[in-house]
Amino acid sequence: MAAPGRARSRRSGGAPSLAGFGPRASAFLLDYILTLMIPAATLVLGVYIKRSWHAPGVAGVVVIVGYVATAAVIFLNNVYFCVLDGRSFGKRFIGLRVARIDGAPIDYRTAILRHLVGYPLALLTLGIGMLWILWDEQQQGLHDKMAKTIVVAD
């Protein structure tokens, strides 16, 4: 078990290797692209249906389904998968993992606080909440501070 305040990297078994801003930004960008693919595709399909079939009602339903699917993907990717193993799609691809600083497993409360509350607040500070990673000793952003998490290279 990890000592209080420290999470262990699965690979090394020792002190964690904290993930810096670059890899974290890359993982965030991959998650963002994955998320935006759904509404983009459904908007294109909706416009096609509206113009070709002259069915604005059907096009509206397609777009609404796209937004609901986007919300589901956001929840699955940022909350469910984070609880499952600490990784979103982007973090898995880059080789990062979210860990609690007390060594406990990520739970739904922590994942929701970090991703669905902390990310928007970190971005609403004109991005300073995200850039905080650059000068923080534990390389934590505002969302990490709120949820008491760190991101480690795995």
**N- and C-termini, Cα separation:** 17 Å
Output the strand order for the largest sheet: 1-2
Helix-strand category: mainly alpha
Mean pLDDT reading: 91
Q: Uncertain runs with pLDDT below 50, 5 residues or more?
A: 1-12
Question: Count the helices. How many?
Answer: 6
- Provide the β-strand percentage band: 5-15%
Could you spell the SSE succession in H and E letters? HHHEHHHE
Q: Indicate the radius of gyration in whole angstroms.
A: 18 Å
- What is the strand tally? 2
Give the overall shape: elongated
Q: What does the largest sheet look like? A: 2 strands, antiparallel
Helix % is 55-70%
Description of the structure:
Helix 1 (21-52) runs antiparallel to helix 2 (56-85) and helix 2 crosses helix 4 (108-124). The chain is 62% helix and 6% strand. The protein has helices at 21-52, 56-85, 89-94, 108-124, 128-131, 142-147, and strands at residues 96-100, 149-153. Strands 1-2 form a two-stranded antiparallel sheet. The protein starts with 20 loop residues before the first helix and ends with a strand. It is mainly alpha-helical and 154 residues long. The chain is elongated and about 60 Å long.
Q: Could you list some keywords that capture this structure?
A:
single chain; about 150 residues; mainly alpha; two-stranded antiparallel sheet; 6 helices; 2 strands; about 60% helix; about 5% strand; elongated; disordered N terminus
Secondary structure layout plus pairing:
Blueprint: H1 21-52, H2 56-85, H3 89-94, E1 96-100, H4 108-124, H5 128-131, H6 142-147, E2 149-153
Antiparallel strand pairs: 1-2
Helix pairs in contact: 1-2, 2-4
